[in-house]
Amino acid sequence: MNLIRLMQVGLMKLAKQTRGQDLIEYALMAGFVAVAAGAVMPNVSASISTIFSQISSVMAAAASQS
Length: 66
Known about the structure:
Elements: H1 3-16, H2 20-40, H3 45-65
């Protein structure tokens, strides 16, 4: 199964599921895809790192507000 099809299937499942466990699984899958993309395309790794840093800071800010 190619990467694009795998992502499409994952996103369709995400749209159907509302449980927290599934959300974590899809986030992990997105992380693995990002790592694979960074390994295959080194020019993309800096952008991926920036995106994950921004996500981390947003999540930290949200956790501190609760």
